[in-house]
Design goal:
Number of strands: 4
Radius of gyration: 33 Å
Shape: elongated
Mean pLDDT: 78
Order of helices and strands: HHEEHHEE
Low-confidence stretches: none
Strand content: 5-15%
Oligomer: single chain
Length: 158
């Protein structure tokens, strides 16, 4: 019984230690912090600007009282408007970050830094012209089909 629990614990630890789970956790934490930044941007800067131009951002007076319960349509409309403003602000931020990343990649390509990484890549493996199997670069015979390859020199054949 103890071994079954140990297996589950080991499986859980392996699951938690996967890169994608850790990346997801980091993303959620950063997303939470980013949410407070965006909410502050919208509530402290954008909504006051809208209020200064067009009046109050709150929709008041659209409510119905039903059996002592208030159904506030105005609060829902205000929340929907706030959501749209927040979505537009996030869209603008993501668009700016993507543009900045595109410019950075373009600058790296123009500087020739990207080509250096591509040039240092491993060469394609050598293949036998007869059996099409992969062979060592310095081989004179194919280890798969024993065919003589280009550059073959054997003292016994001379």
């Amino acid at each position: 019984m103890a071994q079954g629990k140990k297996g589950i614990v080991e499986q859980f630890v392996e699951f938690i230690n996967r890169d994608n789970v850790v990346d997801l956790a980091v993303g959620v934490i950063i997303g939470g912090a980013f949410t407070s930044v965006v909410n502050s941007l919208v509530s402290s800067i954008i909504q006051p600007l809208i209020s200064a131009i067009g009046g109050s951002p709150k929709v008041k007076g659209l409510s119905v009282v039903l059996n002592g319960q208030t159904i506030d349509f105005g609060a829902f409309i205000s929340a929907a408007i706030s959501f749209l403003i927040t979505a537009i602000a996030v869209f603008a931020i993501v668009k700016a970050v993507n543009k900045m990343n595109d410019l950075k990649e373009l600058a790296v390509k123009k500087a020739g830094l990207a080509g250096a990484a591509e040039d240092s890549a491993a060469p394609e493996p050598r293949t036998c012209p007869y059996c099409k199997q992969e062979i060592a670069e310095d081989a004179t015979r194919c280890p798969h089909c024993t065919s003589k390859l280009a550059g073959y020199e054997n003292a016994l054949d001379a």
